Amino acid sequence: AASRAPITLMKLAEKRALGEPIVMVTAYDHPGALAVEAAEVGLVLVGDSAANNVLGYADTVPVTVDELLMLTRAVRRGLKAPLLVGDLPFGSYEASDAQAIATAHRFVKEAGCDAVKLEGGGAMAERARAIVRAGVPVMGHVGLTPQTATALGGYRAQGRTAARAKAVLDDALALQEAGCF
What we know:
The chain has helices spanning 9-17, 30-38, 50-53, 65-78, 97-111, 123-133, 162-177, and strands at 24-26, 43-46, 83-87, 115-119, 138-141. The chain is of the alpha/beta class. It has a 5-stranded parallel beta sheet with strand order 1-2-3-4-5. Helix 4 runs parallel beside helix 5 (97-111), helix 5 (97-111) packs across helix 6 (123-133) and helix 6 (123-133) packs parallel to helix 7.
């Protein structure tokens, strides 16, 4: 794995165009990153799910930027080739484009992320657009969005009616239009 070329967004687009599988996993620490590197995984997400899977919170909402940056730095130290995506936690990008850009820049500068992830379409597509314009690739996330699960009445399957499925599709298209991958 040490000689494997880094995975880039261009390489991912090429794999997609060729119909090749793309493997993405979540890692929260250095030992996990070493295992991911050895398995030759293409993308690694340090998700806000570290809140309830590692840090003992009841859900993802309380996790802070500083907590996720610490975990993401540990993962970065274990990776050479995979594209690293840092999850922007709840409350770190919603208020304004300036807040979203500043948080995304921290994940790139302080943790070595290649991209960031944010949840939701609609208004969040504008936040994604601002981050992309500021030079940081953004992975979009629609459907079941844990950061806003309470607004949805808890963890529930999304898109189960035609209207809701259309809304999820519209969110995905809005993020794509904003420049997300």
